[in-house]
Amino acid sequence: MKFSARFRIVLVPCLLIPALRAQQLKPETQHDFDCYVQSAEARMGAQKAFVAADSDSVLNEQLVRGRQVRTVPANGANPHQLSGGQLYDWIGLVFIPEGSLDRTIRMLQDYDHRVLYFPEIISASKLLCHTGENQFRFTMRLKEPAILDVESDVVWERVGPERWRCRSYSTNIHEAGKEHGYAQRLYSYWRFAETPKGVYVQAETITLSREFSGFTRALGSMVGINPEKTLKRTLAEMRESALKTGMQIAGPPAGLAGCGDSFHPGGCAAPFKTE
User: For domain 27-242, which architecture applies?
Assistant: First the structure.
């Protein structure tokens, strides 16, 4: 897996409207997307290294000493062609020097104030419900690739004294104004590992969009329709916010309702095959 730079979209859900409508997919598009997600999650579950830097000394040097934000296609060249859609699958990593795992997790679970931590990407956010300390549902308004209101279901899991992971599934996405289909589904998977020197953060984002021509994709990448670039900006802003001193991080408000059952993507009888 060789790390390079090049793409864009976002990872933190949505807004202040009472209910969002999910963008309806064609049955064949939904099937292909569900199959891809099932295959991708199986791949993630089988990986031996918790974060890629554990087994890649060159990458580790770039993250720790070079202070770089690194991205790589997770499963071959993007986009992946689906029936009636296009899918982008990216992995990104960043290192937070002298960072605290506990502080980073508390900051990311402060869903009412995401605009403070990701001001270039998010313009509003609101926690809708939470169950215990591990399940949350929230909305956010994204500034790019268009004005998008996204509602997401998020589940966190501590997998060791110095490791956390979480997954976020968009359950509703609404594009303000005309629907272009820039982002129809936004799924993301996160891993956090603390060391004596700081915290490693690794994210994989899976973004489904409407099918666009090569010219439209090239034009869109110049004006903001770029999942890789947004992932890099998200990780950079996360590092910057996690290192700010004196920032007060709020916990979930008292009296908020529980979320009920967490969301699960649809199953797939046959695994997705890349070209």
Answer: 2-Layer Sandwich (3.30)
